[in-house]
Design a protein that fits this description.
It is a single chain. It is built from six helices and seven strands; from the N terminus they run ββαβββαααββαα. The protein has a five-stranded antiparallel sheet with strand order 2-1-5-4-3, with helices on both faces. Strands 6-7 form a two-stranded antiparallel ribbon. Helix content is 48%, strand content 17%. By secondary structure, it is α+β, with helices and mostly antiparallel strands.
Amino acid sequence: MIQAILVFNNHGKPRLVRFYQRFPEEIQQQIVRETFHLVLKRDDNICNFLEGGSLIGGSDYKLIYRHYATLYFVFCVDSSESELGILDLIQVFVETLDKCFENVCELDLIFHMDKVHYILQEVVMGGMVLETNMNEIVAQIEAQNRLEKSEGGLSAAPARAVSAVKNINLPEIPRNINIVQGTCLARISQDSLRMSTCQKPMFSGFSSPPTDH
């Protein structure tokens, strides 16, 4: 089982940290520093796996790593995992990143951390290997990207509608209107008198009800 996946640069700055075993945050930082120092002092002409540090479990765990340009990719695994199999898994993960980001570099891991974590979840979840076929992983990532674009188009529709309404050219309402109040009131009073003299009762055709004496 995979216990942790660590990615840090040549100066020990962590770029991707994923633990599948619960550790306090302070212990996690110490594990990253300890692992960096263990890996950094190894020559390039020796094997790419060694015993884990004392904080991660010592000889019960192995550190399997690959060095690409400015980044170290380190997988901490228990004795049930194959060293060569994990080396191939690291290669698949890095090639998938390179495929998704088109010549991946350290800055991609900094500014697209959410996407990097999603790609990692397609490879490893809960410390267990899910997929080792790069084409299948890339197909899942592309499907997710299409879904996000379609959802983004739907969510942007109300904003586009509001923008369209704002851009409608409505006729301006005149603001300065001079109204002579005396003339308007006189005209209204004359019209009301004329209507009162000409209007007939609404129920003139019906006889009035008898009154009780």
